[in-house]
Design goal:
- It is built from two helices and no strands.
- By secondary structure, the protein is mainly alpha-helical.
- The chain has one domain.
Length: about 50
């Protein structure tokens, strides 16, 4: 792999990390928690008790 290819890969990886961070910053933690808990309520109704 050439130095040029390595540099491109590094820049692309940095771009992906930055993009992920930007998208995560848009999330509302309380809304995400409520959505997850809503899904868990449905799951608990379906699963048998042990």
């Amino acid at each position: 792999m050439s130095e040029y290819q390595r540099e491109l890969e590094e820049q692309f990886e940095q771009f992906k990390r930055q993009r992920l961070a930007e998208e995560c910053a848009k999330l509302d933690p309380e809304a995400e928690k409520a959505l997850a808990e809503e899904g868990m309520a449905v799951e608990l109704e379906i699963w048998p008790e042990y």
